[in-house]
């Protein structure tokens, strides 16, 4: 028997947003774009915690030959426009 208490746990939009420290709107957008694993139940999005953790694990591994934020990565938001300009120059 598994000792992982999160195994099989189903999360709501609000729970995933809190877990990933982003807004609910960001989670809706990522789910609709199929950038994070999700499914709908009665018109409401639901997420498997195991799938979300797997996606985090997958994105945490460096991609050989790729230094930037590539396709399929959860976006990071710069704190201001100056940060965006600095990142573009790198």
Molecular structure report:
- With 90 residues, this protein is α+β, with helices and mostly antiparallel strands.
- Helix content is 42%, strand content 11%.
- The chain has four helices and three strands.
- A three-stranded antiparallel β-sheet has the order 1-3-2.
- Helix 1 crosses helix 2.
- The termini are far apart.
Summary?
The chain has 90 residues and is α+β, with helices and mostly antiparallel strands. Helices cover 42% and strands 11% of the residues.
Approximate shape = globular
Query: Which stretches are low in confidence, meaning pLDDT under 50 for 5 or more residues running?
Result: 80-87
Helix content: 40-55%
Our measurement of the CA-to-CA distance between the termini, rounded to an integer number of angstroms, reads: 49 Å
Write a concise keyword list for the protein shown above:
3 strands, 4 helices, 90 residues, 42% helix, 3-stranded antiparallel sheet
Summarize the topology.
Layout: E1 10-11, H1 13-20, H2 24-32, E2 39-41, E3 44-48, H3 49-60, H4 81-89
Antiparallel strand pairs: 1-3, 2-3
């Amino acid at each position: 028997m598994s000792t992982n208490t999160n195994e099989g746990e189903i999360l709501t939009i609000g729970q995933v947003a809190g877990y990933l420290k982003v807004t609910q709107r960001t989670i809706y957008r990522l789910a609709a774009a199929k950038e994070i694993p999700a499914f709908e139940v009665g018109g409401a999005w639901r997420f498997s915690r195991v799938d979300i953790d797997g996606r985090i694990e997958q994105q945490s591994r460096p991609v050989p030959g790729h230094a930037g934020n590539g396709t399929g990565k959860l976006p990071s938001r710069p704190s201001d426009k100056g940060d965006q300009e600095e990142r573009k120059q790198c």
